[in-house]
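Hi D.,

Good news: the full-assembly prediction came through. Inputs first.
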Amino acid sequence: MAGVAVSTTINGDAVEYLCQPDETLLEVLRDRLGLTGAKEGCGTGDCGACSVIVDGRLVCSCLVLGAEAEGRKVETIEGMAHGDQLHPLQQKFLEHAALQCGICTPGFLIAAKDLLAKNPSPTEEEIRFGLAGNLCRCTGYDKIVRAVQDAAEVMKGA
Amino acid sequence: MNFDPRFSGRQFASVGTRPIRPDGVDKVTGRARYGADFNMAGQLVGRILRSPHAHAVIKSIDTSKAEKLAGVKAVITAKDLPDLTDGDAAMYDILDNCMARKKALYDGHAVAAVAAIDARIARQALKLIEVEYEVLPHVTDVDEAAHHHAPLINDQVFTEGLEEKPAKPSNVTKRTQFGHGDVHAGFAKADFIVERSFKTEQTHQGYIEPHACVASVNPDGTADLWVCTQGHFVYRQHCAQLLGMEASKLRVTSSEIGGGFGGKTHVWAEPVALALSRKAGRPVKLVMTRDEVFRASGPTSATSIDVKIGASKDGTITAAEATLRYSCGPYAGSWAEIGAMTAFACYKLENVKTVGYEVLVNRPKTAAYRAPSAPMAAFAVESAVDELAHELGMDAVDFRIKNAAQEGTRASYGPVYGPIGIGPTLEAVKHHPHMKAPLKANQGRGMACGFWFNFGGQTCTDLNIGMDGSVSLAVGTVDVGGSRASLSLVAAEELGIDYSHVKAIVADTSSLGYNDMTDGSRGTFSSSMATISAARNAIKILRERAAQTWDIPVEDVHWEKGHAIAKGEKYGNLSPLSLKEIAAASGKTGGPIAGHSELVADGAGVSFATHICDVEVDPETGSTRVIRYTVVQDAGKAVHPTYVEGQYQGGAAQGIGWALNEEYIYGKDGRLQNAGFLDYRIPVCSDLPMIDTQILEIPNPNHPYGVRGVGETSIVPPLAAIANAVSNAVGVRMTHIPMSPPRILAALDAEREG
Amino acid sequence: MVEVTLWGSLSAVAGGKARHEIEAKDIRELFRKLAEQYPGIEPWIDRGIAVAIDGTIYRDTWSKELPEGAEIFLLPRLAGG
Amino acid sequence: MRYIRPLSIEDAVGELAKAVGPAAILAGGSDLLVRMKGGFIEPELIVDIKRIGGLSDVTETADGFRIGAAVPCAVLGENKALKQAWPGVVEAANLIGSKQVQGRCTITGNLCNASPAADSVPALVAAGAKAVVVGTSGKRTIAVESVPTGPGRTSLAKGEIVEAILLDKRPEHAGDAYLRFIPRTEMDIAVVSAGVNLTLDDHGAIKTARVALGASAPTVLLVEEAGQVLVGSKLDEATLERLAKICSGACRPIDDKRGTIEFRRKVAGVLAQRAAAIAYKRAGGK
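Then the structure:
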């Protein structure tokens, strides 16, 4: 199997890697680049734990080939905070205890960031449907929804 | 150890507040390391070959082709994991489950494993392993398996607990019985009797993180294991025993854990990873796929339950009886036993009898799932209780209040209760605004009660005070949902310092004494007890150091609000010494200051909850939406109330999924049809409403702060609460969980057709 | 002297009797005396028996004292999630 | 295994045509990568068509809309003109998987995977959509319902690629709708589904109607009789009753992990009624 050489941008940094043609972007991020913030909960696009943003689109990185990232801009959880300044969503997830085990948290944060970028004032229903691609088994979603609502308020004020 | 665990009724400064958890930032930035996030230099990829058959004799396994594939470094079968269990039947079952010996007992049962330099080669190698099976008839349904004509899963099993040993083997491994009084006499006194049979399907804990570990065995026999687990000390014992190692030579580090709910309480693939590493001489990383998690980890039991309850006209229950059959997978378990114990635990009953049967089936080995076995029993009993209230013309809550257990009641499982919370949760529900909110067409309201035991167990904790006065707390209880925050609060409380100066970690198995796993809602209960004990031991040293500094007797030094205070008029000119000041001087007063604790935290105190639920059912499609949900539960004392609420909400959500859609679906071929998150339908965000909580605090007399376990009880009432709500919405009693749309529509159509 | 009640299945190995009067000061002594009287109980003790003392369940504290007149009930040792 | 990213449709067709082993077209990949992960398919060649000019665009033409084969469904939801003209098709496309999946999946892929439960297909069939197929021997335009021939099977020849889906320009008083039944609110495969597309005359009576059902037979069903029963009506109770009966009767579903035969039959009728009511309202009917 011939490797594919890829030049891409991840969290603003130029990155080059060689990957196998059938290797997913999730595998590349985790196993080649050491970016283990995106998690594999299912590998089939059903849990959202591996969510990243590619060229402004929210996707499951398990459903993208590493080779497809050529020339794209990829955003992962590792790029969400600015220096030591947490993103308002990260801060609100902490304040509301919107995580218990925390395995789904990076995916939820990325999906919520995408949601608020497209809809800065979502209703509860819009948040619930907007985050329906991310499974959480610990919280019952209550505190996650509240954290996103609160973060939306803060971000509008900023 | 002279630790006094009795409740002292103190006022709290830190406990009961809601600070940010210490592991929080790591988790929102993606830095926290879970099972699959760890790597070692030179590590190989391990993969497991699994049986496609539900029941088959393994006639031969030829691994030679796989071994010859370039890049393959080890191939193992059961021969590489010989039986070292020395008559320990439970451990033998775990071993056989990790790697099948003579027979494959379910679709997904491990039969061989490989370690290779990458995942692609490992996958290819699995395809080169030739297994010759002799396929046997199988049985997956709990009722069919209990039938005497059913294919036998283990011909050495003769039902235990019968008066005489049976002549023939059977799939029923054990009969258990609980109760008191005379149910025949009780039913004779009843004016109304409800008798019904119920079924619940098998569900999975559904943790988002698949099982994952990295195992590294050295040539000298020492080893390291990095693993996501609810109990790394338990995993160390299991692995050491199964691989013939000394426990102290195996260091197990628990990663952050991405959910367990009972499913990570014993080993599944970890001994396989260690055996591969031992054979290959290199570290091996083994991560289950989601498909493997569903097919080959430990879901809960499927059940079949018959309930009969009678009451007199005044609303007093005169007798209650249940027969409970629980599937165990292909290995013996005690799941029906727990169901039989919990079934009627909420009620004050003169005459009660429960009988449990453990049933072997060709499904994965059953594991604990949050208050294991209790939700199914509660579903059957609470459905019948609701129906009986209806027949009596009594309000469902009032009927339960009239018959609720209280202090002094003999529990249906035997002992007499101390102070308990079932009555207060029912009173709170009776007066909750949710109960009075109006309902629209096709909507229905239901409520139900739930009970769980809670445990404590062996616990070990180290508390070290740094020279700067900050405190590090090392615990052996895995943090599954925020317990490091709670334990830091407890340490701060006891020492009288600010929460921000405490940092809690989960120590590895070589750094701390044995600690039971996080199960039975014991995490915060038992580790807070050990933390209080460790803090008190540290305070004793702090007082000694202050006494030494002041050159006065230690008896005259008291500890208050983080300071040593010299008590007595003669010490009027001595200003208090802060913890920080004592710590700074510690190098000159006798060295480091620490508190250690090892104890058995028994006396966890039983737990009760009552839930209210509103649903809307589409009568044309059978689709059900939960539109409002309220949890009322006793916490003893809520150490970090936000995380207590989180436990209540999470348990309710899991129960909602179980009630409506989650189930293992097997084909006629005995293969699991829905081994993925697409068709094993756990609730998504848009499926649920906000889940309201009300925390009651009825102190546990056996804990210094009054803490009870809170993690499990919340999953007990939802199945019944939702079944009652659906039944009230559509006027048909639902007796089969999950109440999936096809089941509801079929029930409605049957009713419409009369 | 304490009165100890065994759950259904355990009483079957203890001569079919649910209630037993036993002279024991703590859980350890209780188990020892039961095993002396009914050797069939030993494997059950090895597998795990919990002791409820006035409704509070003890799984591991074998040194726990049995107060005079307390209600003592033996139960299977449970699993949790 | 090889991964290639041709820049022209001719190159893509040529590579596919000369491929020796199994070859796969990659647009959104939301189905292909799942099948690869499960070991159900091991392609020797993956042809990523996203860099081919025009395949990632939605264009409004004199005849209607042309939706390139590589356009993610999320993009359809953001196209106001398309949403205005074909709300049923767009809502069907935006029901596939999650937001994450919609950022990748395409209606062409949905069609070519040939699942009887594909969400966008009943809506496309009801809409009378056409597929532009390119192969070594040229280009042809066919009705979308002639692409799938059975579960996982299509009428496409080796080397053929569907490069776009065409939707007609909308006349006055037209409306479409798609409804599916799933046990959850999101993240499910349709247990059964119905797409309805209507045009009305000046008096508000139904002039033309197409009804399609999903997950009720080996391929998506165009139920012509159901369309006929609607024509001339103003969607009165009796017509809706007959519609449901015809749709339930037309179903040839199976029992599987997602639903029973009885359930699918019954709910197909219910959904057809409800989708017809929405389409009627969208067309301006009262």
